[in-house]
């Protein structure tokens, strides 16, 4: 970090800053020859808090010299990370990873029929929550352990990979035992103990963007997982909170393109939570693929009108099948494809 002083700052002001840096056990490097005094804090490992220096007499501003994340940055690893999954699938390579299914597991019939439908349309993974983060404590909270058991059954029936959410440290192991990819939801994006727990797991992690998180906040959350030793993080844009009641969220496709530049990690997009409205999901799925998303997470339900959560944004299976055909065409134009589905229809 660089400490820039005001033009009228004195040598005493500079000496005070240097003394504080040295008290912290770090080296201070004044930069001569500028019109203003400036001191670099060398090798700051986090000990020098910019806020402590910003209020010292004579200091005008603190300029960060390095990004607040390291291992997720493109400079750390120039080639894209390809997260390997079972069944020879992967995320971040040329093929898109298509994850579809209901918001929540409700009954065996519901999850089994939905899984069969999305598989027939070419999805490679079923998504559905057993532990649901709901804004109201009185809303359906998911079937819990019984839901995980139903996911196991459906995996055997269909051969689809399973993506499901871990909400807390307490249930992380149970979820990870069933999931091929463990989802960390938007509301938990900054649950640092959960992120560290996921970082000690060997399962790939799908990290959704928090509803009010900046892109940098989101990358720092991914850094927590990588820093604990798990390199297999897939980011997922799912919309950030806006003020317009016509849509549920602002689906930020800028973030998809920006993350591709800032990080080597794969990034998917979730047009279901991004829009909140079934009629908007297909157009925005097409847009997300065009923007360079490495995959899609889409809510599909055999009877969306009876869904216990997120029915209004869940596609009917026929709409999902149409979406798949549309994105197949868009993917081809930008040199990408859909994996050969487990149903063999791809
Ligand atoms: C979900 O995927 O059903 C979900 C709860 O998503 P988010 O965390 O993005 O709200
Ligand atoms: Mn949902």
How would you characterize this protein structure?
The structure is a single chain. This protein is of the alpha/beta class and 346 residues long. It has two domains: 2-63, Alpha-Beta Plaits; 83-343, TIM Barrel (Alpha-Beta Barrel), CATH 3.20.20. It has eleven helices and 14 strands. The strands form three sheets. The chain has an eight-stranded parallel sheet with strand order 13-12-11-10-9-8-7-14. It is elongated, with a radius of gyration of 23 Å. The N and C termini lie far apart (51 Å). The chain binds phosphoenolpyruvate and manganese (II) ion. Manganese (II) ion (MN) is lined by residues 103, 273, 299, 309-310. Manganese (II) ion is lined by residues 103, 273, 299, 309-310.
* Mean of pLDDT: 96
State the separation between the terminal residues, measured CA to CA: 51 Å
Shape-level CATH architecture of the largest domain: Alpha-Beta Barrel
Spatial extent as radius of gyration: 23 Å
Spatial strand sequence of the major β-sheet:
13-12-11-10-9-8-7-14
Number of strands: 14
Based on CA inertia axes, which overall geometry fits?
elongated
Number of domains: 2
Q: Class by helix and strand content?
A: alpha/beta
Topology as a string of helices (H) and strands (E): EHEEHEEEEHEHEHEHEHEHEHHEH
Unreliable spans are none
Bound molecules: phosphoenolpyruvate, manganese (II) ion
Largest sheet: 8 strands, parallel
CATH topology of the largest domain: TIM Barrel
Classify the beta-strand content into a percent band: 15-25%
Specify the number of helices.
11
The amount of helix comes to 25-40%
The H-level CATH homologous superfamily of the largest domain, spelled out, is: Aldolase class I
Q: Name the CATH class of the largest domain.
A: Alpha Beta
